[in-house]
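Justification of computing resources. Each target in the renewal requires a structure prediction run like the one illustrated here; the chain below, 149 residues long, is used simply to show the kind of job we budget for.
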Amino acid sequence: MKMTYIRLLVDDFDACYSFYANVLGFKATWGKPGEAYASFQVNDATLLSLYKRGLMLDALELPMQPKHEANHGFALILEAGDVDAEFDRLKSAGAKMINQPKDRLGWGLRCFHLTDPDGNLIEVYKELPKEEWSDDLKNHPDAENYPEK
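Resulting structure tokens:
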């Protein structure tokens, strides 16, 4: 098997559609506001789709249950050329920011976090030069392959 894309199950479809299309700037390849399903081309190899959570639960014949306000069971990870410029752009566009850009030497990254209108967690990062990494990360046996791509 191979993973082909990620589908987010959302309660506020129109707000999420607008966020991914207008704030993050992903190109819609299917669907539009007011519908129940949309897909976005994130880059050459990555697709992201949105689907109304209630309709998915109906299809699975499961009852509607309240969603946690902080939906942090997963995170979308986006690489940026300039983390600080992306932070400023997204904040100016009205994105709900969780934290400021920060060098995380133990991760080998500069990153920040935000949420979409449905509370889904998003991390925006750029790899730091290896000489800036923490010693623990530099000496990890898998450091040569980090971050995972």
